[in-house]
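Figure-free illustration: sequence to structure, shown twice.
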Amino acid sequence: MDQQNFTTTVTEFVLLGLTQSRELENFFFIIFFIVYVATCLGNFTIIITVIADHRLHTPMYFLLANLAFLDVSDTSINTPRLLWGLLSQCKTISFKQCILQRFSFLFIGGTTVFLLVGMAVDRYVAIYKPLRYLIIMNQGVCVGIVALAWLGGLAHSAVQIGLILQLPYCGPNVLDNFYCDVPQVIKLACTDTHVVELQMVFNGGVLLVLVFIILLISYAVILVKIRIHVTDGKRKALSTCGTQITVVCLIFIPTIFIYARPFKKFALDKVVSVIYTVITPMLNSMIYTLRNAEMKKAIKRLVSRILFSGRKLKT
């Protein structure tokens, strides 16, 4: 039987989900539904505020709005499917849907990683070239950073999905997770997958580790510059960089745990998966909103404008 016949054997995967307890599934549904709604509200609030408030029409907030859009997209790939599985007991996903889910997740995840690099560049220019900041980080450069981030995410996803699709799948088809995760899907292939696993770890895990180290070094250099040379606005600069470092750690640490090691099952895998697919997108918006005084003021101004407009319409 040739490889083409093998690949068409498996038409769907069975997802075991987070738990087999119906009571826990109901509890998780309520919790994750609240988290998903909070994630969407928080990130859309950031996007709308940045668009509506002309004081936020700066490179930093342009990139932040794009990150908020990616967070909404990221959580919308896996969380609705998780909620549907908890509510309906639907435990299967077709092979095509599984591949599409992984492509979208890797696409958005890769784009987020590259956008965070762009945000670090923005902070570097703001601290080291303050007088030329708006000249260097002009609209064209900002759009270019976002475009390159999307292209980088697309290339990363295409490579990973290409490696998955070249493998034969002739059963088994059970995944011990709530979504189609790349390491577990590869393990179901009816062939030796050691070479592909190494390629995946190098393409995903090693890339994550290298970018994470580069970002940490970059922010360390920026913090030293702020501490030694910056006098005006030091507190604001430290707060902004501290916020971005926190978000970088929230995104990179869980994903490195999953993808930068050999494909072996660990007890914490599901917990870590929930953190970076469901929880982190919500925390990002909360961190940027609660730790950013300018963003909080802009949200208050937006709310005041909406309320004032509503009162004028009534009168």
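We now fold a second protein in the same way, so the two outputs can be compared directly.
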Amino acid sequence: MNLSNTIGISASGMNAQAQRLRVVAENLANQDTTGSTPGADPYRRKTITFSEHIDDDTGVSSVDVHDIGQDMSDFQTKYDPSHPAADAKGYVKISNVDSMVEMMDMREAERSYEANLNTMQSSRTMLSRTLDLLK
């Protein structure tokens, strides 16, 4: 593997973590969204999964987003008979987004993005120094 491959690997990791941050942001933005009619489901938390991609030509392994799915855990309910989405008993389904989980996911994605950025910068520095030696 050469140094230019490491830049591509780091870039794929940064792209994957940026997409993960977008999913987290969407979850946090919609955590208070409920249904609009009685018994309607509220916003369902989205999840993201990654997969390994191997380039056939170079044999370099990188990361891709495999799927953006949904968290199928149960919705909680809250008693609010005046809400338009309340059922006959006065309960409203609320989103299954947990802000603490989302904040932990956000921090992990941020750290992974930063690690990939540092790797990319180190690779560029090494490549630049190699070119200086060849002059």
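Summary for the second example: The longest strand covers residues 61-70.
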